[in-house]
Structures are given as structure tokens and as C-alpha cells.
Design brief:
The protein has about 950 residues and is an alpha+beta fold. The protein contains 28 helices and 23 strands. The strands form eight sheets. Strands 3, 4, 5, 6, 7, 8, 9, 10 and 11 form a nine-stranded antiparallel β-sheet that branches. Helix 11 runs antiparallel to helix 23. The N and C termini lie far apart (about 110 Å). Its cofactor is Ca(2+). One of its GO terms (molecular function) is peroxidase activity. This is Peroxidase family protein. Keywords: Dioxygenase, Fatty acid biosynthesis, Fatty acid metabolism, Heme, Iron, Lipid biosynthesis, Lipid metabolism, Metal-binding, Oxidoreductase, Oxylipin biosynthesis, Peroxidase, Plant defense.
């Protein structure tokens, strides 16, 4: 009867499937696979975080506490575990070496998530951290009842939700007899009540005399699964009767006991027998001693000591701050079973929540209900009247409701996760500097997930990828480019200036950069139409294919083709990496020698690099506009450093540097949010919406009421909220990259003018202001004249037939490319859906005819010539072809990605939310961000331009040109 290890599923339990072959004897997965189970457990972990908030609210606590075991009775660091010298051979696994002795941290506690009196009915808990070495520790967690009230993770969370904040007999009764049956059913609720009642009814005199059970099983190397327990050693002195008046009597009793003598426990295990008598997946089943005898493993000794000293209290506080986790162990001693696998997600989430590393912002029920009604109503209304034609306040409400739809449906998690979970070492403490400084590479922005959004992490998705290798070259990208993108006549965007074009490239270089294989190693080959040839290298021979470097993909499943994911070689955060560099080496190389806080400049200009491109955080695709932006904000960084030194003379240079980086990065984010974006989407509605993202919504009662009903979290500016990643871990997305392909903004020629006299200094083509020619030009004419020249000139409109000619034969890294072709090919090969699928995925009606896309008859004719059907239209082509809303510089479809991601870039970043505060930025830093914008940055470094900047518009609107003076010095016309 003890031979079989086949798993038997209890009646009513969700079907499970085995893990890997080596473990299928013991474990089955909820939902059918480790990946599905992980998603279920992530949801349960978020539910437990909501329980923590509910407990805090009802108990009136000052902060988040543990979901369970909130009240510590004992916390010591000097206990010792000695393994028995006669340990059976098969149990000599991992730290269980005969005669070995280890230091142990011990925490004894009440089990409730509420800090209640010790005489209140409750279970008790023990947490041990066995410290085997500097890089290895094992956490053992136990409770004073042999079985769990919950059979599995779902029941465990349902019980926690029902009991959250139940701090009185009445509330506990309501929770157990009303809420719990509604969540798990009457029979299951009865079993759970019975287990809880039996476990908590007994009066406890001393935690030194309690026995503690693991409930769940762990793997004990080749010996297989075991459950462990901690029981008091023989000969312990009796405890006085439990107090009914002292709310802390258990702590007082332990203190008195340890003042007299050691407290000693035996650590024991029970071996697995079979699925019937010693089940792994059922936490509510007892492993009876007659079936699985108890085998002593070692002796735990808490030495005699005085707990009533300042040192002991400091130690107890330190222990209370620890996050014990059964997965803090090694693979050969890893936890087993449904409850333990759920505990990995739950413990990580709840401990991170408690310590302020992770946050959750529950959506009020009224927002769910009213928001759902509005989404339905606006969905119907927008079939007749699009959102941008509604009255302003109604349009704002429409956008807010739609943003909720996008947040719930268009954030796809692409992070590579471990499934099934794996054991891990105890996480090291977080460097204190990382709590108040941006890291060099984007790590530790989210303290609970240090790699989220960091350099090298994968791009996310707003839409499921569509990989069609058979259509990578259909229709031919060269034909698409020549027929639909090629600039025949420059089409200006008259509401903007070229500074706006430079700005967005400046920003994109901070946000996104796909890694490419080195030129000549692994290339994409695009076949050319008949009769066409291309020189792929400067001076190279004509070829029948266009060739350019392939992107490096990520292959999480070991080699899928084409790659599922692509890594970002910039961090995803809004951290100014284009100015400061993307890693520590680059960042430190840009600073003044000897560790100075300022960026190293030469007479106010960037230092020249060995290849003619200046030294700065991002040096690719260099041209005059980028040089202006980088020079301007390097100077701004140094100005902030100077102000910080003056205001805080005791601040060291490293702190000055990092604080200035925080300030400049946030100022850049503010400028983009409240200045650049309303300039390119020039409507009152967008201006209000984007300003509300940063500063909060208008204070009129109608707007406030609407947001209170639909999205209460939008009642303040995002910097006053908590971080919120919504439906997926934060990242920028491949779809976001696609809608920011705004190369038509770049003109093909530039007039360089003198701001003082209005005379033209030179007229240059794009190739004369890019690459190695750039720095000689900006140093010759100066930053002031360069800004003036860009400020008075129009960029190109983001539309078809307006792609810069110079970028269609562009030399980069030793190859000659048509960047318009590269844009099309990259989008296809990265799996971004084609235009019609893109629209549908963003909840827009599909177009059925080419005429539905644009009102221009010539464009319609060309579209029909190039594409077989509307479903074949490339995403970028469709976005350029759309007739945008009035005042918009790009399409409504692109805007849908924008309204989702624009707030997300702020909302996810703790340095733009919970840590946007004077303790981190300094009062001067926050005041600098508050008082400044693009105009003041320009005027700080180029005050001569004050009279040319627009009076009632942003610095990205066209500037007033100087009236040419006929008496210009040096022209012979004096």
C-alpha cells in the first residue's frame, strides 16, 4: 500500500498536471502548467496585498504590516542549531551534516495579521533562518497546528480576504460564517472553520513550550519530501497560567524564562510515504505519526540572555524587519506543493509591500461600476462622434474611460519568469544609495523587481505579436518607400519648429534602442525590385539586395525563430540616459576629472570624441539638433550642480551629481509632458489632459466629480500618487517604438542664421549638419545661433510622401541604408501587427476600403498599386496616411498608444511618484522642476534669445525671426 507515488486529486479540486519527470511523483500544477499556475498565483499575491491595505485601514496602523504573523513575541540572532551526530544516512542532506552547528535567527510570533492581545484566540508561529555560510541560508516557517486551514492557495487567500481586519468577535463571526462560505463554498468553509477553531481554542502559557509544524512539505534531497516540526526539548520548565489581562504576557514570559535558562527545541522531520497518507498538494491533510514517524534531526538552542536591554531591543527590531521566505534555500531543500509554490509569489509581494518596495492602489468600486458604464456608452457614441469632436469636458471623460480600457487590455507581460519557481539565496540588502538615486543602468527603480525596465530588459507589447516570415518582403519594402514615403516636395508642419524634431529624437534615444549585430556579421537582406541596384557600403559595388545589420533577439525558449523578444540597450525609464550614459562606466567618464559632479565641457561645448562625435550619453545618428539638445542639457546639469553646492555646501560631489541627475531627468519628463506633447497635439483637450498628468486636473467641480466617479486616482497629478504598473511589469513596447517613427520631421536643408541681424550665415543640406560635420558647425556659429536657426524653421509634417531624402541614402556604421526601408522591415520582423490589425487591437474599427484611410485620391491610388488588400498595409504607412484629428501632428491610432504609455512612463517610476519628494530631490531640486520649463532652460544658457521666443506658446512653436538689418557689420554695407 506504500509503493505508489501516483497523485490522487481530491474531489472538486482543479485538475493539475505534473512538473518535470523527476518531480512528477510529488507535484501537480494548478491550471495545467507552471506558466498558468504562476499567473494565478501572481493574482493571488495581489489579492494578499489588498488584504494588507484593508488590515491597515481597519486597525488604524501607521503602515503596511505582515499579512500574517504581524506581532512578534521574540526576535533573536544568537540561536544555534546543532545537527545530531547519529542522523540517519538518508537524511544527511544539505546543511544536515552530522555534528554540524550553525547560527540561527529566530522569530516567534502570533499568527494573526492584526497586532492583538496575546490572550486573544490565535495560532503561533516560528520562523528560523539557518545561516550555513555567507552565501547560503535556509528559512523554515512553521505554525502551532499540524495542518493548514486551507487545502490550497485559493482557499488560503479567500480566508485571508474574509478575515482581513476582523479585530472583534462580531467581525470574526461575520467573516467565518458569511464571507468565507460565499468565497469557497459551505463544506469547505466548515472544514476551514473547524481547523481554525481547533488550532486557536487552546490557551498558550509559553511559546517555548509550543510545537510548530511546517504544514507544507519540502524536498530533502534524495530522501524525498519531508515535513518538519519544531518541538520543545524534554525537561523544559512549566509556564505560569496564561494571563487574561496582560496583552503582552507571552513576551514577558519568554523574557523571564530566557533570563533564567536556555530555551531548547528539537528540529524533526517526517518522511513522505505516499500520496494517500502523506499528500504533498493538500495542505489541510495531517501526516499522522503512525504513518510517518517523527525523526529528530537536530537541537535548536536559544541561549540564556537579557531581552530587556537596548541592544536586545535593537536586535528584535532588526529581526522583525526581515522577510522570511521558505524559498530562501537551495534546490535540494526546496519547498514542494501548491501552497508553498503560492507562498513564493505571496511572500515576495507582501514583504515588498510591507517594506515600501511594491505598491498597490485598489480601484474604488464606484470607479469600476461607473467606468464600465461609461466605457460602454462611449464605445457606442464614438461610432457616431469620435472623442476629439466632443465638447472638451466630455472629450476628457471619454479619454479617461478609454485609457482604462487600454490599461486592462493592452499591457502584455513579456518578462521572462521562472516557472516553476526555484529556490534562491536570501536577497542581499538594498544599497542605501539606490533608495535615493537613480542607478546608472535603470536597475532598482522598482525595489521589489530590481531588473524591471533596466538596460537589457525586453521590450513589452501593447498588442499580441504577429509573425509572418512569409510576408517579411511583401510588398517589397523598396516599392513601399519609393511610392508612398519618398519626399517629392517638402511638406512643412507650420505649428512647430525644428527644435520639436530635435527634442523627440533626443527623447527616443533615452527610451529605446534595439541592439544590432556588428556590421557585416549578421544582416537582413531585402531583395530589390527588377532593374534596381544598391551600394551597401560607401564606395561599394552595386548589389541586387539591400543589406543592413540585423537586430539581436532574445530566445527565452532556447531558439525560436524568429525571436520572440528583443532587448532594449537603453533603460526603459525616463532617466536622462541620453545625457548621462546607460551604465556606470559611461556615466563616470562624462563627469569632470577627479569625481566632480559637473559634466565635463570644453568652453560650454561637449568634448570631442575619437571619431568626431562628441562624448555624451548616446552618440548615434548625430546631427545639429541632437548636438543642441545635448549641449543645452549638459549645461543645465552643471547649473543645477552649482545651485546645489551653493544651497547645500556640505553635500559631497557624488550626491550633488546624482541629485542634479534626478532634477534634470524630471525636468525633461515635465517638458515633454506639458510642453512638447501639447505642441504636437495642439488642442485644448490635450493641453488640459497632459497638464493634469503632471499637475492634476482643473479644479472645477464638474471635472472633479467626473474623475471621482471614473478614476479617483487621477484627481491629483501623477507625481502625488504611488507607483502603479497596472496590468504588466513596466517596459516600453515594440508598438510604442513603431508610433514614434517620426523621421518626416527632419528637413533636408537648413538655413543657419544670425539672431542679432537676421542674416543667413549658410544654407546647408542634412549631410552638412550631421555626423562628424556637426561639432565644427555648432562651435563656429555657437549654441545661441544654432537654437535660433532651429527655432525659426519648420520641421516636416508626419505624413506620407515626406520622408527625408538624406535618410534614404544614409551612411551609418560603415553601411549605407535607406532608413525608410529599415523602418518598414524592422516593424515587420519584430511582429508588430500590420495597420488594420493594429487598429483593431486598439479598439478602432477596421478599415474596409483604401478610401477609409485617407481622403487624398492620389494617395488612395498609390496604396491600391502597392498593396493587394487593406489588410496588407504596413503599420507605419497607415499611421502616416491617416487624416489626423484637427490640430494633431500625428494620427489618432498612434495617439491611442500614446495615451496609454504617456501616463505609464510617469506612473510606474518611483522617482516620479512616491520618491518625488524633497527628501530625495532636495527642496531646491523640487523648486527647480516646478519653476522651470523649456523656455527658462534656453534663456538660462542663451539669454540673448528672450525676444524671439513665443509669448503665448511653448518653445516648440515657431519663433519670431529677426527683421534683417540693412546695416550689418562686416558686410560692406555699413
Amino acid at each position: 500500500m506504500y509503493e505508489t507515488k501516483r497523485h490522487e486529486r481530491p474531489v472538486g479540486e482543479a485538475p493539475m498536471t505534473p512538473e518535470a519527470p523527476e518531480a512528477e511523483a510529488y507535484e501537480r500544477y494548478v491550471g495545467g502548467s507552471p506558466e498558468v499556475e504562476r499567473e494565478i498565483f501572481e493574482k493571488l499575491a495581489r489579492d494578499l496585498m489588498q488584504v494588507q491595505l484593508k488590515v491597515m485601514k481597519r486597525s488604524g496602523a501607521a503602515g503596511i504590516d505582515r499579512t500574517f504573523h504581524a506581532k512578534a513575541i521574540l526576535g533573536v540572532e544568537n540561536a544555534r542549531l546543532r545537527i545530531r551526530p547519529d542522523l540517519p544516512e538518508d537524511l544527511r542532506v544539505g546543511f544536515a551534516k552530522p555534528g554540524a552547528e550553525y547560527p540561527v535567527i529566530v522569530r516567534l510570533s502570533n499568527a494573526s495579521g492584526v497586532r492583538q492581545s496575546d490572550f486573544a484566540p490565535d495560532l503561533r508561529g516560528a520562523a528560523l533562518r539557518i545561516q550555513v555560510g555567507p552565501d547560503q541560508a535556509h528559512d523554515l516557517l512553521m505554525t502551532s497546528y499540524p495542518v493548514s486551514h486551507a487545502r490550497n492557495a485559493r482557499e488560503f487567500v479567500a480566508f485571508a480576504q474574509a478575515m482581513a481586519g476582523a479585530d472583534s468577535t462580531l467581525r470574526k463571526g461575520i467573516a467565518l460564517f458569511a464571507k468565507l462560505p460565499m468565497a469557497v463554498g459551505w463544506s469547505t468553509a466548515a472544514r476551514m472553520r473547524r481547523n481554525v477553531t481547533e488550532g486557536t481554542r487552546r490557551k498558550v502559557g509559553s511559546l517555548a513550550l509550543e510545537t510548530y509544524w511546517s504544514r507544507g512539505a519540502i524536498l530533502w534531497g534524495d530522501a524525498g519530501p519531508v515535513r518538519y516540526r519544531l518541538r520543545p526539548a524534554a525537561g523544559a520548565s512549566a509556564a505560569p497560567p496564561p494571563s487574561q489581562s496582560d496583552p503582552d504576557y507571552l513576551g514577558h514570559e519568554l523574557s523571564a524564562r530566557l533570563a533564567r535558562s536556555d530555551v531548547v527545541f528539537e528540529l524533526c522531520v517526517q518522511r513522505y510515504v505516499d500520496a494517500r497518507y502523506t499528500p504533498i498538494e493538500n495542505g489541510a491533510a495531517d501526516w499522522k505519526e503512525e504513518d510517518a514517524p517523527v525523526v529528530p534531526v537536530g537541537t535548536l538552542t536559544i541561549p540564556r540572555q537579557d531581552l530587556d536591554t537596548a541592544e536586545a531591543r535593537a536586535i528584535a527590531l532588526r529581526v522583525d524587519q526581515l522577510a522570511f521566505d521558505p524559498w530562501n534555500t537551495t534546490d535540494e531543500l526546496r519547498p514542494l506543493g501548491n501552497l508553498n509554490r503560492a507562498r513564493k509569489a505571496a511572500y515576495e509581494a507582501s514583504s515588498a509591500h510591507r517594506r515600501g518596495y511594491r505598491f498597490i492602489t485598489p480601484r474604488p468600486k464606484r470607479n469600476v461600476v461607473v467606468g464600465g458604464l461609461l466605457q460602454t456608452g462611449f464605445s457606442a457614441l464614438n461610432r457616431v462622434v469620435p472623442w476629439h469632436r466632443l465638447p472638451t469636458r466630455l472629450g476628457l471623460l471619454n479619454l479617461e474611460a478609454f485609457r482604462q480600457v487600454l490599461r486592462s487590455r493592452n499591457l502584455i507581460d513579456t518578462e521572462i519568469r521562472e516557472a516553476p519557481p526555484k529556490a534562491h539565496p536570501v536577497p542581499p540588502p538594498i544599497d542605501e544609495h539606490l533608495r535615493v538615486r537613480r542607478s546608472y543602468d535603470g536597475t532598482y527603480n522598482d525595489l521589489s523587481a530590481p531588473m524591471m525596465g533596466a538596460l537589457g530588459s525586453a521590450f513589452g507589447r501593447n498588442l499580441p505579436p504577429v509573425y509572418r516570415p512569409d510576408l517579411f518582403d511583401t510588398p517589397n519594402p523598396l516599392v513601399v518607400s519609393r511610392e508612398l514615403l519618398h519626399r517629392e516636395t517638402f511638406i512643412p508642419a507650420r505649428s512647430l519648429n525644428i527644435i520639436a524634431a530635435a527634442w523627440i529624437q533626443f527623447q527616443v534615444h533615452d527610451w529605446v534602442n534595439h541592439k544590432r549585430y556588428p556590421t557585416g556579421t549578421k544582416s537582413v537582406e531585402v531583395p530589390l525590385p527588377p532593374g534596381m541596384a544598391w551600394r551597401n557600403t560607401p564606395g561599394g559595388k552595386p548589389e541586387k539586395v539591400m543589406r543592413f545589420a540585423e537586430n539581436e533577439g532574445m530566445y527565452p525558449d532556447g531558439g525560436a525563430e524568429p525571436p520572440i523578444l528583443f532587448a532594449n540597450t537603453a533603460s526603459h525609464w525616463w532617466d536622462g540616459s541620453e545625457v548621462y550614459g546607460g551604465d556606470e562606466t559611461a556615466a563616470k567618464s562624462l563627469r569632470e576629472p577627479d569625481g566632480g559632479a559637473a559634466l565635463h565641457l570644453e568652453n560650454g561645448h561637449l568634448l570631442p570624441g575619437p571619431n568626431g562625435i562628441p562624448l555624451t550619453g548616446f552618440r548615434e545618428n548625430w546631427w545639429l539638433g541632437l548636438s543642441v539638445m545635448h549641449t543645452l542639457f549638459a549645461r543645465e546639469h552643471n547649473a543645477v550642480c552649482e545651485a546645489l553646492r551653493s544651497e547645500y555646501p556640505r553635500m559631497d560631489e557624488d550626491s550633488v551629481y546624482h541629485t542634479a541627475r534626478l532634477v534634470v531627468s524630471a525636468l525633461i519628463a515635465k517638458i515633454h509632458t506639458v510642453e512638447w506633447t501639447p505642441a504636437i497635439l495642439a488642442t485644448e483637450l490635450i493641453d488640459i489632459a497632459l497638464t493634469a498628468n503632471w499637475e492634476g486636473p482643473p479644479r472645477n467641480w464638474l471635472t472633479q466629480l467626473g474623475l471621482w466617479l471614473v478614476d479617483a486616482h487621477a484627481l491629483t497629478g501623477i507625481p502625488e500618487t504611488l507607483p502603479d504598473h497596472h496590468a504588466a511589469p513596466y517596459s516600453l513596447t515594440e508598438d510604442f517604438v513603431t508610433v514614434y517613427r517620426m523621421h518626416p520631421l527632419i528637413p533636408d536643408d537648413f538655413e543657419i542664421a544670425d539672431h542679432r541681424f537676421g542674416r543667413t550665415l549658410d544654407t546647408l543640406g542634412f549631410n552638412d549638419v550631421q555626423g562628424t560635420a556637426t561639432e565644427a558647425l555648432i562651435r563656429k556659429v555657437g549654441l545661441t545661433n544654432s537654437l535660433y536657426s532651429l527655432g525659426i524653421a519648420y520641421p516636416g509634417a508626419i505624413t506620407l510622401h515626406n520622408y527625408p531624402r538624406a535618410l534614404q541614402a544614409f551612411e551609418r556604421d560603415g553601411e549605407v541604408i535607406d532608413l525608410s526601408v529599415v523602418d518598414i522591415v524592422r516593424t515587420r520582423r519584430r511582429g508588430v501587427p500590420r495597420y488594420n490589425d493594429f487598429c483593431a487591437g486598439l479598439h478602432k474599427p477596421r478599415i474596409r476600403r483604401f478610401d477609409d484611410l485617407t481622403s487624398d485620391p492620389e494617395t488612395v491610388a498609390r496604396l491600391k498599386d502597392v498593396y493587394r488588400t487593406v489588410d496588407d498595409i504596413d503599420t507605419m504607412v497607415g499611421l502616416y496616411a491617416e487624416n489626423p484629428p484637427e490640430g494633431f501632428g500625428f494620427s489618432d491610432t498612434a495617439f491611442r498608444i500614446f495615451i496609454l504609455m504617456a501616463s505609464r512612463r510617469l506612473q510606474s517610476d518611483r522617482f516620479l511618484t512616491v520618491d518625488f519628494r524633497p527628501e530625495v530631490y532636495t527642496p531646491l531640486g523640487l523648486d527647480w522642476i516646478e519653476r522651470n520649463g523649456m523656455k527658462s532652460v534656453i534663456l538660462r544658457h542663451c539669454p540673448e534669445l528672450a525676444g524671439f521666443l513665443p509669448r503665448t506658446a511653448s518653445a516648440f512653436a515657431p519663433w519670431r525671426p529677426t527683421t534683417p538689418d540693412r546695416h550689418v557689420p562686416g558686410t560692406g554695407r555699413e
